[in-house]
Amino acid sequence: MKHLHILMAVLLIALFLYQSYVVLRANRQPPFVVKISTHILYAVIIISGAGMLVQLMSANAPVQWVFAKVILLVAALSASIKAFNPSAAPSQTKTGILVAGIAYIGILILAFTKPGNLF
Asked: Is residue 37 part of a domain?
């Protein structure tokens, strides 16, 4: 489950970078396949993350950092929706990409450090 989750996270970040490049440099929308792939990756990463959370909670491990990751994932998802919306203004696109990028960096930091006493 852990390896699937890591693979989906890497693919999700790679697709985010690709979409950002297409929207900012080529000034057009990414292909439809990329949009569908992103939705599928979000679904798989949430399901695999929930499965790992259940395992962590059954082992009485500290999971505060997981809740912070969930909050950052929601922020990245909502910012990405606004950034890659075809009717978004260029400033909204740039701001959405920046916010989503910062959220993904925060998720990666939490994933690597796993702070025991976050709150």
From this structure: yes
